[in-house]
Structures are given as C-alpha cells and as structure tokens.
Amino acid sequence: MAGLGRFGAGAFVAPALALIGLFLVFPALWTIYLGMTDYRLTGLQAVDPSFVGLDNYEQILGDPAFWRSLRLTLVFVLASGIVGQSLLGFAIAWALRRLTGWLKSVVETLVLAAWVIPASVASFLWIALLDRRGGTLNEILGTQGTAWLIEHPMAMIIIFNIWVGTAFSMLLFSSALASVPPSQLESARMAGASGWQQLRDVVIPNIRGHILTNTLLITLWTFNTFTPYLVTAGGPNGASEILAVYIYNTAIPGGQLGVGAAISLIMLLINLVIALGYLRVGRARAARPAEATAAETAGGAATS
Amino acid sequence: MTETRTTAAAPPPLAARVARAPRARHFVSRLLTVIGLALLVVFFGVPLAWLATAPFDSAPTLAVAWPDWTLSNFAAIGENRYAIGSFVNSAIIGFGTCVVVLVLGAFASYALSRVRIPGRDGLLYALLLLSSIVTGTAAMVPTFQLVNMLGLIDTHLAVVLVVSGGTLPTVIFILKDFMDSIPRSYEESARLYGARPWQILRDVVVPIARPGLAFVAVWTLVQVWGNFLVPYLLIRRTQQQPAAVLMYTFYTESGQADLRLLSAFALIFSIPIIVMYFLVNRRYGFRFHGGIKS
Amino acid sequence: MVHRTRRLTAALASLTALGLVAACSSGGDGGGGDDGGAVTLTITANAISGGKNAAEADWIRDWVIPEFQAAQSEAGRDVTVEFLEEGVDDEDYKTKIALDLQSGEGADIIGIDGIWVGEFAEAGYIMPLSEVGGDAVDSWEGWDQMSDAVQSAMSFEDQRYGVPQGADGRVLYYNKELFAQAGLPEDWQPTSWEEVLEAGRSLAGIDGVIPIQLNAGTAMGEATTMQGVLPLLAGTGSEVYSDGMWNGATQGLRDALELYATIYAEEGLGDPILQQEAAGRDNSFAQFAAGEIGILLEGDYFWRSVINPDESIGTAPMANRDEIVGYTLIPAQEPGSGVEGRDFVSMGGGTGRVLNPNSENPELAWELLAFMNSAEAYSERVAGTVSITPRDDVNAEVLAGDPMLSFVSENVLPINSYRPGLAAYPQVSVALQEATAAVVDGTSPDEAAEAYEQALIGIVGEENVASGDG
Q: What is the ipTM, given to two decimal places?
C-alpha cells in the first residue's frame, strides 16, 4: 500500500507512539491506579497511601455535589459545545461562504482572535467585561450593579465558551462547505429547492463526516475544558462547578488526589459512551447498501 | 448574482413559481445576514476591545474607555526582571512543541492512513480519550514523578514532551482525516520513479497536506502558549518560566491585579500567536479534508 | 457487537503494551550534586519582584543574598545563594513545593504558610528544625525574642519545624466619618456582638453604605474562615478542633451562623452578592477605602498593605487613613464568653520558612535561615513598610512609629487563637465556608450547622467528630 509495508508503517508510527506511551498512557494508567487509593498530596496518606479498591467511586457516586457537577457539565457541553459552538460556527461559515472583502475579514479575524488568545487573557477580558461595578457590559446595557457572574454563572460560562471556541467549528465547516460539489447545489437550485432544502438534502449529507469530527472533538474538548474556572472559579457556591473544575477543587485545594483521579476516570467513561454513541449514529445514517459492503470488505476497522 | 441568473434560466413552469419569491426572500435573507454579521462583530469584538484600549491607558480600569494615551505600561514591562525572558521561554517551548508534534504527527498519521492495522481506529479513540485524563489536574503527580525520574525537571524539554504527549492523539486524529483525503495515485507515480516512503511523505504528501499541518501547528501553539500548570510545576528557576506563568505573578499580595502591567503584558502575550495565525493563514490557508468517514 | 468487542480488545491490548513499554523505558536519575568547595544554597518563597509579596522578594535578593555571601566569603567559604521566585496562587505554590519535597528535591529553605506545617510534617516532607539543622538550632538567640504563641505558628506537636517570619492579628476596622454621620462615637469599643449589630443598624440609615462586611462564602476562601467563622467561633468559647476531636454542630457554631443570618439574610446589614464575587475580598477593600463600608473585620495586613497611603504600597490607598479609620478589638459574643473566658478575641495566622530535610548542606542552610531571621535582617526587611516581626527586640524599635501595629502587637497578639495544623484542616475550612454561604443564601443556621457536621464526618470520619448537641 503506497509502498509502505507493515514494517515501514510501524517505523513511521513508532516515535509518536513511544512519546504518547511514555508521556500519556503511562501517567494516565498511573492516575487510574491512584483513583483506587486514598492518596493525598500531603498528610499521612501521602507517605503511606492504602489501596481502597472502589471506595472512591462509591464515595463519588454518593456525593450530591458530583451529580450536580455532572448535570452542569452536560448542560455546559450541550449548550456551549454541541449547540453553541457547532451551530454558530456553521452559521458563520454558511453566511461567509460567498462573501468576500472586508466584512468577511473582520468577522473571521474577530472570531479567530477570540480563539487564539491565551486562556488567561480571554478569561480576564470576560471578567472585565462582566464586572459588577466597572464592567463594560453594564455600561452598555445601563444595568449598573448587575453581578452577571453571580446571578447567571452558568449562562455566562456557556457564552464565554462559545466565544472562545466557535472558531474551530467555523474553520472546519468553511472547508466542509467548500467541498460540497457545486454541481449538486446547482441542480438543487434548478429544482427550486429553498435554502433550507438545499442545506438538508445536499449540504448536510455531503459534510456528514465533518459534522461527526466536529461534534466528537468539540464534545471531548468542552467536557475537559478548565478555562471556565478562570472566570467563575466554579462559583458562586458551586453553581458553575463543571467536572473539570470539580476535579481540580477536589484534588488540589481539597487535597484528595485519589478521589480526583477517580472522577477523571468516570469522566473518561462518560466521554467513551458519548463517543461510541456518535459513531453509532454516524454509521447508522450512512449505512447505505453500497457503502456498507465497502466497509465490510475493507475489514471493518472502526469507521472506515 | 448566480442565483438570479440560474432562476431566470430555469424552465417556465418552475420560473412562474419561484420568480417573485426569491427576490423578496433574497432581500430579507441578505438583510438578516447583515444584521447577524453585525451582531457577531459586536459579540466577538466587545470583549476584545479592552485589549486594544487598556494597555495604552495611563490609568486603565476594567471598563473599555477611550484611553488617556501612553506607552508607559509597556515600559513597565521592560522593568520587570522576568518579563522579556518569559517571552523567549514561551517561544522556545511553543516552537519545540510544534516541531515535535508536527513531525511525529505527520509520520504517524500518514502511516495510519495508508496501512490498515487491526484496531487502528479503536486505538486512536482510546488515546484521544486518555488524553483527557492527562491534561486534567489529577494526573499532575504521576506526570511530575515521571519527569523527575527522567531527570528532566527544570527543563523546557520536559514541558515540550509532556504537552506533546497530551496533544499528539488529537493531532494524529485531525491529520489522519487529512491524509485520508489525499489521492494515492500521486504516491503511486512517485513510487514508480523509485521514491522511498519517507521521500514520498516529504515531497508529495507534506506539500499537499500543508493547510492541515498549518492548522495543527496553530492549534498546538494555542494549547501550549496558554498552558500554566505544566510549566509551572515542571520548571524551577523563575527565569526559565514562560509568559503564561509570569502573567499570574502580576497580582499583589491580596490578589488584586496591576491592570497597567497586566493589560500591556496580555497584549504582548497575545500578539505573537495572532500574528502567527495570520502569517500561516496567508501562506497556506486552512482546509479540512474528509472528516470521519462514516 | 462482535465487531466492537474485537475493536475494544485490540485497543486495550495495545494500551497495555504501551504501558509496559513505558514502564520499562523509564529510568535515569535526576538531580545534580555540588562540585568541590563551592556550595550553592537555594531559597524559594511565594514572592516575586514586581508581583506578589514583592517587598520580601526584593529583600531576599538585594539584601539577604549579597550580605550572606559576603559574610561567608569573609569566613573563607565560597557560597552562592540562589533565589527561586514564585508569585502564584497559594494552592498552586503548595502543590509545587509538596511535589518537590516528595521527590526528595526542592530548595534548601522554603517559605510556607504556617497552616501547612502539620500536613507536611505528617507526610514526612519536613522535619523538626533541630533534626535537620543540628545543635545550632536550639541554641539560636532568636528563639528568646519570639513568644511561644508566635513560635507555635510554625510548630507541630510541640516541635519547631520552621521559623515564623511575622505575626498578625485581627481587629474590627470602622470608618469614623460614617460613624459620625450615624451619630456613633469616634472612639468605639463594642463589648458584645449585639453592640456591633446596633452600630450596624445605625449605619444602615446612610445611603449607599454597607454597614457590616463580614466575610462569608467559598469565593472568599480562607478569608471567610480566618476573618469570619473562626473569630466568631472563638467569641462563643468553642473551637473547631479541641481535645483531639473535630467539633460538629456545636451551639457555638449555631450562634456564629445565626450572626451571619442576622447580618445578611434577616436585616440586610451586609451585601450578600459581594461575598460571592471571585474578587469579592478585593472589592470589599476598595469599597472600604471609598468610604462605602462601615465596619470590616480584617487583619493588620489590611492596614499596612491595603489602605496604606504611602506611594505604591497600598493596593487601595486611603490618603486620610490615619484620621478616619478606626480599629478596635473583636468582642466575644458576650463579655467573658470567648475561649479561655476572654472578653475579646482574634485569630493568628502567619507564614514562615522551613529547612528542606533533603538539603545537602543542612547546617549551612540553617546558618542562612538564622541570618534571615536576625534582628539586623528584620530591621532591613521592614525598613520600607513597617509590619509586625516575630522578634520582640525588633518590634520594640520599629513599631514605635505606628500606633496601629503597636496596638496589634501589644493588645491583639496575646489574645490570638490559632488554626489546627492538620492535613484535614483545608477541607474542614471549605466546609465552614459552605455553611456560611448556605446561611447567607437563606438556609437556617441550624440546618447549615447540621450539614457542616455531616460534611465533617465525611472528611475526617465519624470517630473523629464530637457531635454538637445544641
């Protein structure tokens, strides 16, 4: 295959796998092991952690704070990631697809700037924007004294995360839309299809792979993002404590590294279930006879 | 435009039905588009405005205001013992990570795209999921101990390797999609001329895959540029710390930020990465190929 | 299904293989030794020039290091001292030094918060000073200048683990201008909580003024515990930890939470939103400085570093601080109801420096630490901004010019209570903060106290909790 035998392929993959093995798999497995101990960073359990089996998991699953955090995370992922970033990213890509000139540049530049500036800067910009006393938003809206981050913490971190992350979906969908064969769109238009119908019947089937990639990555990233901590610190009183923040608060200020590690694994499993769900949906939709046969003969690797 | 032209050329029965509607619809949808874009500019622009005004204000507040122009805030950065050096450190770590991730990621994703290894995609997804554990805070202790065992504490290399390990699965995932979309016929002909696999990768695949590589480079840089915890824990000497760590030191004893220093620093901190994005974009453009084949 | 199982198995198999490879390939040993006669000592502290605790950082780099190196070279020794400056959130700093100590690395002298001493000692990260630094430690002249209470901030189980680098206490600050407007005395000394509330009610009549700012909630973090719950608890005569047990929903805790309920939920004497802001404490400083807060419970740090009118020292400077800011002892709930029958109470915190047990030159490191805590060094340290040092001899000299700090040194330090230096304390502190947050949010004090007791059991185990039957 392209002159690259198994051996050659192995040699190409080996360096990356070695690095991943050493700096990702090894610490990750160690973390999973820590999740089954009562390990702490300081105190008696730091010297002599004991193996507690699944006690941590029992404790976590019995903790209302975990369930609240999980619920907030699901809302956060759904609203800011799957709906917010993906839809807004797609809408921008759609609106800009035939636009040229300065307006397109301005929109793209702003969306991308929000994405590339470092998280610490982005979070500070939003803290400044939403500040109760001197914030710009209150000045614009004439709502002096409104503490946005206290009164609507979840809404704010959702909007914040949309602001930060939309660029990825915009870039991905821009190139996806460019890959839709113009002839198909043309014939749909000739048949009198409305914009919506074109979208549904021509565009979406053509970019299904992109949608799946986008949703998969966005979900994973949104699940794991820690940046909202820099805006609300999970507060007030845990009202915006999504799982990544919950892990931090448990492991670092709370000192319970074992429990923090266990929550990490739970989070991974939830991600796994969601990813499998996506792939299943993706495959089911695409299971047209011809393709299914092709996949079968190809040996049935995950999604090819 | 194209749309009107095609409708006009459409056969009579259809034309009668759609001739009037599209024009009105066209106008409304254009109007909506413009309004929508204007709202977008406001939504994405207003938070950024502070970064454009505060650094040049002699007494910045949290609100966006027309500055009382000065450059003294930037001079204050020059006076900070570690500020300039921290940008150099950020550049070293950022560049190093991009190189490691791009080279290893390109080789691996090319091979994974071209050769069918059993369980290949399963492995890729598993790694992608595992990366979420390692980038989380709970893995800090194992990561630190590992780096300590390797004798790499207090080196930029440690940060490069740890961040690379965490980002490589995503990079391979994105690049593999890209490689999948490159027609194999190019490689076939190169092979007929006796090119070795790595030559094919270098001379045929990489040039075609440039937009994808460029995207991954920027994405990786964004990840490493703003990373606080990894360099903070792995590097000891203050003069070796990158800008992301130094930025957190501009707080006073009580945690209040020095807005003059912070705003100017934040701007300088953000500019290289924005510039890099635009350079890369102008040179190579960004494109995504394929997406997951489903 | 078969499909997927096979894929998962393959994935798991490859993961395991990778893990094994990784486990085998790790090796090598870090850390380098010192060569020959030249010796290098390192100091680390959560302080950095131009940022957090800048004065301390400048002092170490510009005075301690050159002076010490010069003294050593006079004695014919080639000693280099390096200073690793930090300047981040305390939790992150703590994580870093704990990781360092755990792996047998780290600076020779490490600055830590007194409240970490217990958990670090339990983990074996630090050892009693005399075990690390040798006989010279116990015979050091400085100990005679430090009261037992001050020394206890860096002690654990009656052993000295570090040298304190300061002493602090808490008082009630009040704005005399607002007091005059409300018809309250300029020279104010409440003797019970009720009298504080009375003053607050009078201040409530002034527009745009928050009568009482009493830290609450989790956003304020340790400030809620140190400048809120614990001084109140001390005023009721109960403690968070006593006789080897953690105290649950005691009557004292219920009373303390009741005071929160009165201030925030029932009478609106405080601003409940301020408590929840991420920068709430800073905002409370700014508002006090702007004359918008009547009464504020804070440490002496507030006086010297926040509202200090001196150029570039105060973060919320008040030009007329000395005229309009009053300070007074924190009253117990009722006269005599405080711990050990006190009429007035306070909490002491404080940071200090420890020796790293892994130090390659522990005796020399102690020499440096002793030098940093000499009278001369402290005089130099406080030359720019006066603060209370742990040394009585230095205090007698430098505090003379500052009535407020003299007041704290003479009247507040003796009535200080201290936090239990145990590993579980940080979590217990969070549970206390959550209890106040709940009350501010409208939960009844009794319910919040019960919830605290449950949280306590979850943290330290039922066998370590003394249930409060209130």
A: 0.86
